[in-house]
Amino acid sequence: MTLNDLFATIQSRKGADPDTSWTAKLLAKGPAKCAEKFGEEAIEAIIEAARGDKQALTSEAADVLYHLLVMLAASDVTLDEVLTELGNRQGTSGLAEKAARQ
Ligand SMILES: N=c1c2ncn([C@@H]3O[C@H](COP(=O)(O)OP(=O)(O)OP(=O)(O)O)[C@@H](O)[C@H]3O)c2ncn1[C@@H]1O[C@H](COP(=O)(O)O)[C@@H](O)[C@H]1O
């Protein structure tokens, strides 16, 4: 399973029957609800990281990635666009980027 495969599945759930798909149900609630859900999952991952529970963090991280992709799909941003943005930063030190923004 790649993130691209998962994103394609999520995109395919747009407009699908909310009674048969959790993703379709979430997408039907709109971008703000998807963002809220992503935030909840991120906080759960933060808690597990802080507790040092690797197994729980692994599970929560999977939830975070899934809900990030749902939030992107709900907001009409593609995974490719995010990967392109990351690619543009390749070879650039985070410190240099921070200095350029100041
Ligand atoms: N990776 C996931 C995935 N991760 C988490 N979830 C769902 O996200 C939900 C979030 O968990 P919560 O405990 O917060 O859910 P909840 O408490 O019931 O929800 P709320 O009452 O808080 O709104 C759960 O119901 C999980 O089943 C996922 N649902 C789907 N996928 C992937 O998406 C694909 C398509 O799924 P469907 O659209 O459901 O067919 C699946 O094959 C999977 O690959």
UniProtKB/TrEMBL annotation:
Full protein name: Phosphoribosyl-ATP pyrophosphatase
Biological classification of the source: Bacteria, Pseudomonadati, Pseudomonadota, Alphaproteobacteria, Rhodobacterales
Functional pathway: Amino-acid biosynthesis; L-histidine biosynthesis; L-histidine from 5-phospho-alpha-D-ribose 1-diphosphate: step 2/9
Enzyme Commission numbers on file: 3.6.1.31
Keyword Calcium: no
Keyword Hydrolase annotated: yes
GO molecular function: phosphoribosyl-ATP diphosphatase activity
Catalytic activity reported: 1-(5-phospho-beta-D-ribosyl)-ATP + H2O = 1-(5-phospho-beta-D-ribosyl)-5'-AMP + diphosphate + H(+)
Chief place where the protein resides: cytoplasm
CDD domains with a match to the protein in the record: NTP-PPase_HisIE_like
Family matches, as InterPro entries: HisE (IPR008179), PRib-ATP_PPHydrolase-like (IPR021130)
UniProt keyword terms in alphabetical order: Amino-acid biosynthesis, ATP-binding, Cytoplasm, Histidine biosynthesis, Hydrolase, Nucleotide-binding
Transmembrane segments: none
EC class of the enzyme, as a word: hydrolase
Subcellular location: Cytoplasm
Protein family (similarity comment): Belongs to the PRA-PH family.
